[in-house]
Amino acid sequence: MWEAFILALNVVFPLTGLITLGYIARRMKLVQPAVLEGMNQLVFRLLLPAALMRSIISINLSEPMNPTVFILALGIMIVLIAIAMPVVERAEHDPRRQAVLVQGTFRSNFILFGLPIATAYYTDIGIIALMLAMMVPIINLFAILVLEHYRNRGSGLRTVFTKILMNPLFIGSAIGGILLVSGIVLPPPVKRLVDYVADMATPLALLTLGGLFSLSSVHRNLKPTLILTGIKLIGVPSLAIGLALALGIRQRELMGLLLLFGSPVAVSSYSMAVAMDCDGELANHLVVTTTLCSLASFVVWIFVFRVANLI
Protein backbone atom coordinates (compact mmCIF):
# COMPACT_ATOMS: atom_id res chain seq x y z
CA MET A 1 0.00 0.00 0.00
CA TRP A 2 2.83 2.40 0.92
CA GLU A 3 4.63 1.61 -2.35
CA ALA A 4 1.47 2.44 -4.31
CA PHE A 5 1.09 5.73 -2.42
CA ILE A 6 4.69 6.81 -3.10
CA LEU A 7 4.32 5.93 -6.78
CA ALA A 8 1.06 7.89 -7.15
CA LEU A 9 2.53 10.81 -5.21
CA ASN A 10 5.58 10.95 -7.49
CA VAL A 11 3.26 11.32 -10.48
CA VAL A 12 0.59 13.61 -9.01
CA PHE A 13 2.74 16.01 -6.96
CA PRO A 14 4.55 17.70 -9.91
CA LEU A 15 1.20 18.25 -11.65
CA THR A 16 -0.54 19.73 -8.63
CA GLY A 17 2.63 21.67 -7.81
CA LEU A 18 2.53 23.47 -11.15
CA ILE A 19 -1.19 24.21 -10.73
CA THR A 20 -0.49 25.62 -7.25
CA LEU A 21 2.40 27.75 -8.51
CA GLY A 22 0.15 29.20 -11.20
CA TYR A 23 -2.50 30.06 -8.61
CA ILE A 24 0.08 31.66 -6.28
CA ALA A 25 1.63 33.64 -9.16
CA ARG A 26 -1.72 35.20 -10.02
CA ARG A 27 -2.56 35.93 -6.35
CA MET A 28 0.81 37.65 -5.95
CA LYS A 29 0.12 39.61 -9.15
CA LEU A 30 3.20 38.18 -10.85
CA VAL A 31 1.00 37.56 -13.89
CA GLN A 32 -2.21 39.24 -14.99
CA PRO A 33 -5.41 37.41 -16.09
CA ALA A 34 -5.07 38.84 -19.60
CA VAL A 35 -1.58 37.33 -19.87
CA LEU A 36 -2.87 33.96 -18.63
CA GLU A 37 -5.62 34.02 -21.25
CA GLY A 38 -3.03 34.74 -23.91
CA MET A 39 -0.90 31.87 -22.62
CA ASN A 40 -3.91 29.57 -22.89
CA GLN A 41 -4.37 30.54 -26.54
CA LEU A 42 -0.67 29.83 -27.14
CA VAL A 43 -1.05 26.39 -25.56
CA PHE A 44 -4.08 25.54 -27.66
CA ARG A 45 -2.95 26.93 -31.01
CA LEU A 46 0.75 26.05 -31.00
CA LEU A 47 2.08 23.98 -28.11
CA LEU A 48 -0.58 21.25 -27.93
CA PRO A 49 -0.66 20.68 -31.71
CA ALA A 50 3.14 20.27 -31.64
CA ALA A 51 2.91 17.83 -28.73
CA LEU A 52 0.18 15.87 -30.51
CA MET A 53 2.16 15.74 -33.75
CA ARG A 54 5.24 14.51 -31.89
CA SER A 55 3.32 11.75 -30.12
CA ILE A 56 1.93 10.50 -33.44
CA ILE A 57 5.20 10.48 -35.38
CA SER A 58 6.84 8.60 -32.50
CA ILE A 59 4.45 5.64 -32.87
CA ASN A 60 6.32 2.44 -33.70
CA LEU A 61 4.01 0.67 -36.16
CA SER A 62 6.16 -2.47 -36.04
CA GLU A 63 5.47 -2.98 -32.32
CA PRO A 64 3.15 -5.99 -31.91
CA MET A 65 -0.10 -5.33 -30.07
CA ASN A 66 -3.09 -7.48 -29.17
CA PRO A 67 -5.85 -6.10 -31.43
CA THR A 68 -8.45 -7.10 -28.84
CA VAL A 69 -7.08 -4.50 -26.43
CA PHE A 70 -7.22 -1.70 -29.00
CA ILE A 71 -10.71 -2.68 -30.19
CA LEU A 72 -11.93 -2.86 -26.59
CA ALA A 73 -10.48 0.58 -25.78
CA LEU A 74 -12.03 2.12 -28.88
CA GLY A 75 -15.39 0.43 -28.22
CA ILE A 76 -15.50 1.64 -24.61
CA MET A 77 -14.66 5.17 -25.74
CA ILE A 78 -17.52 5.22 -28.25
CA VAL A 79 -20.00 3.74 -25.75
CA LEU A 80 -18.99 6.33 -23.13
CA ILE A 81 -19.72 9.18 -25.51
CA ALA A 82 -22.98 7.61 -26.69
CA ILE A 83 -24.19 7.26 -23.08
CA ALA A 84 -22.78 10.54 -21.77
CA MET A 85 -24.37 12.82 -24.36
CA PRO A 86 -28.07 12.08 -23.66
CA VAL A 87 -27.49 11.78 -19.88
CA VAL A 88 -25.66 15.10 -19.67
CA GLU A 89 -28.16 16.84 -21.92
CA ARG A 90 -30.97 15.77 -19.61
CA ALA A 91 -29.17 16.96 -16.47
CA GLU A 92 -27.59 20.16 -17.84
CA HIS A 93 -29.27 22.60 -20.24
CA ASP A 94 -26.35 24.89 -21.11
CA PRO A 95 -24.59 23.59 -24.27
CA ARG A 96 -21.31 25.18 -23.13
CA ARG A 97 -21.37 23.10 -19.95
CA GLN A 98 -22.72 20.02 -21.72
CA ALA A 99 -19.67 19.99 -23.99
CA VAL A 100 -17.24 20.13 -21.05
CA LEU A 101 -19.01 17.39 -19.07
CA VAL A 102 -19.21 14.99 -22.02
CA GLN A 103 -15.56 15.61 -22.85
CA GLY A 104 -14.62 14.98 -19.22
CA THR A 105 -16.08 11.47 -19.21
CA PHE A 106 -13.72 10.08 -21.87
CA ARG A 107 -10.70 12.37 -22.12
CA SER A 108 -7.83 11.54 -19.76
CA ASN A 109 -4.37 12.82 -18.95
CA PHE A 110 -3.05 9.33 -19.66
CA ILE A 111 0.25 10.12 -21.40
CA LEU A 112 1.59 12.48 -18.74
CA PHE A 113 0.01 10.57 -15.87
CA GLY A 114 0.16 7.00 -17.12
CA LEU A 115 3.58 6.43 -18.63
CA PRO A 116 5.54 7.20 -15.43
CA ILE A 117 3.40 4.65 -13.56
CA ALA A 118 3.84 2.05 -16.32
CA THR A 119 7.61 2.62 -16.33
CA ALA A 120 7.74 2.02 -12.58
CA TYR A 121 6.30 -1.48 -13.00
CA TYR A 122 7.65 -2.71 -16.33
CA THR A 123 11.05 -2.46 -17.96
CA ASP A 124 9.42 -2.87 -21.39
CA ILE A 125 6.36 -0.64 -21.82
CA GLY A 126 6.33 -0.82 -25.62
CA ILE A 127 2.83 -2.28 -25.79
CA ILE A 128 1.43 0.25 -23.31
CA ALA A 129 3.14 3.19 -25.04
CA LEU A 130 1.91 2.03 -28.44
CA MET A 131 -1.69 1.64 -27.28
CA LEU A 132 -1.73 5.03 -25.56
CA ALA A 133 -0.03 6.76 -28.51
CA MET A 134 -2.50 5.25 -30.99
CA MET A 135 -5.42 6.46 -28.88
CA VAL A 136 -4.14 10.06 -28.72
CA PRO A 137 -5.35 11.22 -32.17
CA ILE A 138 -8.59 9.25 -31.86
CA ILE A 139 -9.49 10.76 -28.48
CA ASN A 140 -8.57 14.26 -29.62
CA LEU A 141 -10.72 13.82 -32.72
CA PHE A 142 -13.64 12.71 -30.53
CA ALA A 143 -13.07 15.77 -28.31
CA ILE A 144 -13.08 18.12 -31.30
CA LEU A 145 -16.28 16.53 -32.62
CA VAL A 146 -18.02 16.81 -29.26
CA LEU A 147 -17.04 20.43 -28.63
CA GLU A 148 -17.85 21.53 -32.17
CA HIS A 149 -21.21 19.73 -31.96
CA TYR A 150 -22.28 21.71 -28.90
CA ARG A 151 -20.68 24.96 -29.99
CA ASN A 152 -22.31 24.93 -33.43
CA ARG A 153 -25.74 23.54 -32.61
CA GLY A 154 -28.13 24.68 -35.29
CA SER A 155 -25.33 25.21 -37.79
CA GLY A 156 -25.17 23.29 -41.02
CA LEU A 157 -23.01 20.20 -41.44
CA ARG A 158 -20.68 22.09 -43.75
CA THR A 159 -19.99 24.73 -41.07
CA VAL A 160 -19.23 22.12 -38.42
CA PHE A 161 -16.99 20.16 -40.80
CA THR A 162 -15.07 23.33 -41.73
CA LYS A 163 -14.56 24.19 -38.05
CA ILE A 164 -13.17 20.71 -37.39
CA LEU A 165 -10.71 20.97 -40.27
CA MET A 166 -9.50 24.35 -38.97
CA ASN A 167 -9.04 23.14 -35.40
CA PRO A 168 -5.33 23.36 -34.42
CA LEU A 169 -5.37 19.93 -32.76
CA PHE A 170 -6.84 18.37 -35.88
CA ILE A 171 -4.18 20.07 -38.01
CA GLY A 172 -1.44 18.82 -35.67
CA SER A 173 -2.87 15.29 -35.83
CA ALA A 174 -3.16 15.40 -39.61
CA ILE A 175 0.45 16.54 -40.06
CA GLY A 176 1.68 13.88 -37.66
CA GLY A 177 -0.36 11.20 -39.44
CA ILE A 178 0.95 12.20 -42.86
CA LEU A 179 4.56 12.10 -41.63
CA LEU A 180 4.03 8.73 -39.95
CA VAL A 181 2.37 7.03 -42.90
CA SER A 182 4.70 8.53 -45.51
CA GLY A 183 7.80 7.59 -43.55
CA ILE A 184 9.17 11.12 -43.75
CA VAL A 185 11.68 11.77 -40.96
CA LEU A 186 12.09 15.31 -39.67
CA PRO A 187 15.63 16.71 -40.00
CA PRO A 188 17.40 16.82 -36.60
CA PRO A 189 17.18 20.63 -36.23
CA VAL A 190 13.45 20.59 -37.01
CA LYS A 191 12.87 17.62 -34.70
CA ARG A 192 14.68 19.46 -31.91
CA LEU A 193 12.52 22.54 -32.48
CA VAL A 194 9.36 20.43 -32.32
CA ASP A 195 10.62 18.86 -29.09
CA TYR A 196 11.26 22.27 -27.54
CA VAL A 197 7.78 23.50 -28.43
CA ALA A 198 6.04 20.27 -27.40
CA ASP A 199 7.88 20.10 -24.07
CA MET A 200 6.40 23.47 -23.08
CA ALA A 201 2.80 22.36 -23.56
CA THR A 202 2.06 20.58 -20.29
CA PRO A 203 3.96 22.86 -17.84
CA LEU A 204 2.52 26.01 -19.36
CA ALA A 205 -0.97 24.51 -19.52
CA LEU A 206 -0.81 23.56 -15.82
CA LEU A 207 0.50 26.97 -14.78
CA THR A 208 -2.26 28.65 -16.76
CA LEU A 209 -4.83 26.30 -15.28
CA GLY A 210 -3.77 27.22 -11.74
CA GLY A 211 -3.56 30.91 -12.54
CA LEU A 212 -7.14 31.00 -13.79
CA PHE A 213 -8.54 28.79 -11.00
CA SER A 214 -11.17 30.62 -8.92
CA LEU A 215 -12.20 29.53 -5.44
CA SER A 216 -15.20 31.85 -5.60
CA SER A 217 -16.81 29.68 -8.29
CA VAL A 218 -16.35 26.35 -6.49
CA HIS A 219 -19.93 26.26 -5.16
CA ARG A 220 -21.39 26.80 -8.62
CA ASN A 221 -19.51 23.81 -10.08
CA LEU A 222 -19.31 21.59 -7.01
CA LYS A 223 -22.09 19.10 -7.81
CA PRO A 224 -21.18 18.29 -11.45
CA THR A 225 -17.48 18.26 -10.54
CA LEU A 226 -17.91 15.73 -7.73
CA ILE A 227 -20.23 13.51 -9.79
CA LEU A 228 -17.92 13.46 -12.80
CA THR A 229 -14.86 12.87 -10.59
CA GLY A 230 -16.48 9.72 -9.20
CA ILE A 231 -17.45 8.55 -12.68
CA LYS A 232 -14.03 9.34 -14.15
CA LEU A 233 -11.82 7.82 -11.47
CA ILE A 234 -14.01 4.91 -10.31
CA GLY A 235 -16.94 4.16 -12.61
CA VAL A 236 -15.27 4.26 -16.02
CA PRO A 237 -12.10 2.32 -15.06
CA SER A 238 -14.23 -0.27 -13.26
CA LEU A 239 -16.18 -0.86 -16.47
CA ALA A 240 -13.02 -1.07 -18.60
CA ILE A 241 -11.20 -3.39 -16.20
CA GLY A 242 -14.23 -5.64 -15.76
CA LEU A 243 -14.59 -6.10 -19.52
CA ALA A 244 -10.84 -6.64 -19.91
CA LEU A 245 -10.76 -9.34 -17.23
CA ALA A 246 -13.74 -11.07 -18.87
CA LEU A 247 -11.77 -11.15 -22.14
CA GLY A 248 -8.68 -12.59 -20.45
CA ILE A 249 -6.58 -9.42 -20.66
CA ARG A 250 -3.90 -9.23 -17.97
CA GLN A 251 -0.56 -7.64 -17.02
CA ARG A 252 0.72 -4.81 -19.25
CA GLU A 253 -2.37 -4.59 -21.44
CA LEU A 254 -4.60 -4.40 -18.36
CA MET A 255 -2.38 -1.71 -16.87
CA GLY A 256 -2.62 0.23 -20.15
CA LEU A 257 -6.43 0.18 -19.98
CA LEU A 258 -6.37 1.36 -16.36
CA LEU A 259 -4.08 4.26 -17.29
CA LEU A 260 -6.21 5.12 -20.30
CA PHE A 261 -9.55 5.18 -18.51
CA GLY A 262 -8.61 5.83 -14.87
CA SER A 263 -6.35 8.87 -15.26
CA PRO A 264 -7.66 12.35 -14.37
CA VAL A 265 -9.27 14.63 -16.93
CA ALA A 266 -6.77 15.83 -19.53
CA VAL A 267 -5.09 19.17 -18.88
CA SER A 268 -5.58 20.08 -22.54
CA SER A 269 -9.37 19.78 -22.15
CA TYR A 270 -9.34 23.12 -20.34
CA SER A 271 -7.40 24.89 -23.10
CA MET A 272 -9.74 23.43 -25.70
CA ALA A 273 -12.85 24.42 -23.74
CA VAL A 274 -11.77 28.04 -23.43
CA ALA A 275 -10.54 28.36 -27.01
CA MET A 276 -13.74 26.80 -28.38
CA ASP A 277 -16.09 29.00 -26.32
CA CYS A 278 -17.22 26.34 -23.86
CA ASP A 279 -17.37 26.63 -20.06
CA GLY A 280 -13.69 26.98 -19.22
CA GLU A 281 -14.41 27.54 -15.53
CA LEU A 282 -16.10 24.14 -15.21
CA ALA A 283 -13.35 22.49 -17.25
CA ASN A 284 -10.78 24.07 -14.91
CA HIS A 285 -12.48 22.61 -11.83
CA LEU A 286 -12.77 19.16 -13.41
CA VAL A 287 -9.06 18.98 -14.23
CA VAL A 288 -7.93 20.25 -10.82
CA THR A 289 -10.33 18.07 -8.79
CA THR A 290 -9.75 14.83 -10.69
CA THR A 291 -5.98 15.39 -10.58
CA LEU A 292 -6.03 15.86 -6.80
CA CYS A 293 -8.37 12.91 -6.22
CA SER A 294 -6.35 10.66 -8.52
CA LEU A 295 -3.72 10.41 -5.79
CA ALA A 296 -6.16 8.37 -3.71
CA SER A 297 -7.81 6.51 -6.58
CA PHE A 298 -4.55 5.24 -8.08
CA VAL A 299 -3.27 4.10 -4.70
CA VAL A 300 -6.40 1.94 -4.40
CA TRP A 301 -6.27 0.67 -8.00
CA ILE A 302 -2.60 -0.29 -7.84
CA PHE A 303 -3.03 -1.91 -4.42
CA VAL A 304 -5.97 -4.01 -5.71
CA PHE A 305 -4.02 -5.02 -8.81
CA ARG A 306 -1.01 -6.08 -6.74
CA VAL A 307 -3.09 -8.08 -4.25
CA ALA A 308 -4.94 -9.83 -7.09
CA ASN A 309 -1.61 -10.42 -8.92
CA LEU A 310 -2.95 -8.74 -12.06
CA ILE A 311 0.14 -6.62 -12.82
The overall pLDDT, averaged over residues, is 89
Q: Name the helix and strand elements from N-terminus to C-terminus, one letter apiece.
A: HHHHHHHHHHHHHH
State the secondary-structure class.
mainly alpha
- The CATH topology turns out to be Na+/H+ antiporter like fold
- Oligomerization status of the protein chains: single chain
Q: Which residues sit in consecutive blocks of at least 5 with pLDDT less than 50?
A: none
How many helices? The count is 14
CATH class, please? Mainly Alpha
Largest sheet: none
Write the CATH architecture name: Up-down Bundle
Overall number of domains: 1
What is the compact description of this entry?
This protein is mainly alpha-helical. The chain has helices at 2-27, 33-57, 67-91, 95-106, 110-121, 126-151, 157-166, 168-182, 188-199, 201-211, 218-246, 251-262, 268-275, 280-307.
Report on this model:
- This protein has 311 residues and is mainly alpha-helical.
- The chain is 81% helix and 0% strand.
- It has helices at residues 2-27, 33-57, 67-91, 95-106, 110-121, 126-151, 157-166, 168-182, 188-199, 201-211, 218-246, 251-262, 268-275, 280-307.
- Helix 3 (67-91) runs antiparallel to helix 4, helix 4 runs parallel beside helix 14 and helix 11 (218-246) runs parallel beside helix 14.
- The two termini are 14 Å apart.
- The model has no long low-confidence stretch (mean pLDDT 89).
